[in-house]
Amino acid sequence: MKLDTTNIQKTLQQPIVLIGMMGTGKTHLGKLLANELNMEFFDSDQVVEKRGGLTINEIFELYGEERFRQAEEKTVLELLNAKPSIIATGGGAPMNAQILGAIKKQSISIWLNSNIETIYERIKQTKNRPLLKTDNPKETLSALLDQRKDTYAKANIKIDINANNADKALQEIIEAISELI
Ligand code: S3P
Prior knowledge:
By secondary structure, the protein is α/β, with parallel strands linked by helices. The protein is 56% helix and 11% strand. The protein has helices spanning 6-11, 26-37, 44-52, 56-63, 65-81, 97-106, 116-123, 137-152, 166-180, and strands at 16-19, 41-43, 86-88, 108-113, 157-160. A five-stranded parallel beta sheet has the order 2-3-1-4-5, sandwiched between helices. It is globular, with a radius of gyration of 16 Å. The relative contact order is 0.21. The chain binds shikimate-3-phosphate. Shikimate-3-phosphate (S3P) binds next to loops.
């Protein structure tokens, strides 16, 4: 799908940052958006993995969450300060005050919001989310969303992702960005 994004491409001078829980499609939609806007795409988790030569799981297992959060902070801040791009962040990134401050100051932020059922259905088969290695991953997800939703709500734009319809979500995102800039 090609939407008319000429105006956004002419006007936009900031990065666009996607925030929200794991499994809401930040990476997938980020790539689609980057393609529509002719911008580069980065997934902060993938950058952390590439730099460290380790998967997110391995970083958590070998060095612990704290170390991952430090790498995440460094990476997201660098991406925000580089040439404007589309940045998909890990679900916990905006809980870091430095990251949140920089997102608010330097970017257009988009919260991809979804309910726990949808998120759980999407990620229950995947094994690459260390925070969900608990007895009851669904409950863990729900607790995380409770802790995080007020922070996510600070985004400039909120998009509800409750059906598997990436094209519709992409269109909503593009319309919301057009209205904002
Ligand atoms: C995390 C989400 C993950 C990854 C890490 C921690 C979180 O990213 O950064 O496992 O705290 O919610 P995704 O949101 O891309 O799955």
